[in-house]
Amino acid sequence: MGKDKDNKLDAESLTSCEATCQMIKKARKDGVILDADRAAEMRPCPIGADSACCKHCFMGPCRLNPRDPYSKAGVCGATIDTIMARNFARMVATGSAAHNDHGMSILELFKGIIDGKITDYKISDTAKLEVVAKSIGIETEGRSIKEIGTDLYKELDKTYTQVEGEMPFVKRAPADTLEDWRKAGIVPRGAMREVMELLTRTHIGCDQHYENITRQSSRTALADGWGGSMVATELSDIMFGTPSPLLADVNMGVLKEDQVNVIVHGHEPNLFESMLAAVNDPFFINAAKEKGAKGINLVGMCCSGAEMMSRHGVPHAGNFGSTEAVIVTGAVDAMVVDIQCIKQGLVEVAKCYDTHMVTTNPRCMIEGATHIEFDEEEPRACTDEILFKAISRFSTRKMPVEIPKITNPGIHGFSHEYIEYVLGGTFRGSYYTLNDNIINGRIRGVAGVVGCTNPRVKQDHVHIELVKELIKNDVLVLQTGCSQIALAKAGFLVPEAAHFAGPGLSEVCEAVGIPPVLGLGSCVDNSRILIAASAMVKAGGLGTRIADLPVAGAAPEWMSEKAIAIGQYFVASGVYTVFGVGFPIVKDTKFHDLLYDGLEKQGFGKWGTASDPHEIAQLMIAHIDKKRKELGIDKARDRVLVDMSDRRELSA
Q: Whole-model pTM above 0.85?
């Protein structure tokens, strides 16, 4: 990696995003420090990076030697395996809590709509309401939307408050997968109980067996994927509309110098939905024009931006790695945030460019930002005040504006329902076609490539190179969150990208009219991948549990505790999951062997780690090939039309 005259790493070595690169250079010229340069100056703790330290009581903190992990124990006697399992568990607990808290907020919004107390939103997809209700045993025939919705709320409330029994949505997992969970004692009861119990076990003097701690980590993680995350996705679709493919632009070129630019960044769609209504209000459009603007330009970032892009085609300015850099354009009149993945550094960057930095959620306030509380019962009180500030800032702009002239079109919004429809039509929608093409070898398997960007590695690079390698080897890729935005910027979310795929996958994509990379939405929408995997099992021919499928997952540039929770719920569901950047674990320990081998021997998935994108791809493809061999579909086959009974025999 080269360095500039100030001995800083060349911007080109920090990001694959041309727009972000341009803004890093501008920020340096302006004397503004961004996250990429902070990361370069902040060396990670080598003990902490390997999770060989413990600070859960004040007899320490204790540090063990990662190169000789069994040479000593903590003051309390905790071994390296106990320490790593506790640290891992606490990351799972926090990540699961974050997603479940988000899901619970969505559930309360849903209740307010059903009860008639919240009137600014409505039930947009009544068909999905009925499908979701039926999937967990709620009667829908001859009943009103209010009656079905009331029962659905009561049932889904158990996701959080139940202390015994099984979470409602685990009914949607394949029967054999659910039975595996039951035998292992990891079916989640209620999220509050699972998170509380996991944190209790990691307290000094409590659970001190790495296998037992990991078992509860799996249970708590499943409470995320099959609990809070799934609740958030399904109810958001019901309230705001189930996505179907549409064309939307990504990258900083979506900003408009002659318009009031408002960016909404975070994870909760209700704020964004209300802001969308507000910017289309003729009052504010006229107010903006009176101040010299041609209009108001609403733009998304990060995960709520991905949701709004998928549902409404709202343009998207960039992923997590670009949230500070976009302010450097000088064109952002208001950066509006709610929860999760919000950098505190945004405040200082916003001050440098005279941008309004607004927090809206009591769970995410930032020192130095303006806080305008968002209330679902009166949402316009918040959004209108924000727009007054943004319009005023436009009329008094002091900073020169420099917007990278880069936009990348892409097709977004591949919900599970649409994938099912495009594969089978309105009346015969199923994953039969996908399974058939996996069995006949045109498609090698399916990969979920998801997750964050991390300034410890070149932004977007690992995502892009990994996906290129996967599709070249006929692996269909499903994406969510920041990874989806990385590939959209690289031009892989359009049907024309099929020519980058191998001959089998490209043939299928061209026949169906889809890209080789399907964008499913925000990071909470990883639950769509779980539902898709369950649908593949249901379609037949590829085994009877998720662990049988020729599928794999990766988070190439992960950075958050939510990512660890996501990874563990995929592993516990039966998916081989590879993380890039690094992993908080010491190799050649019993805990390492459990995560990277032992869980698979118990019938679940397993973890993998690699930093090079081609190595990650090789690991994933090797696993997919192993599963194909176990299913007896590893050899090239002539295409044979078979009926459902024949196909089910393939999994016997």
A: yes
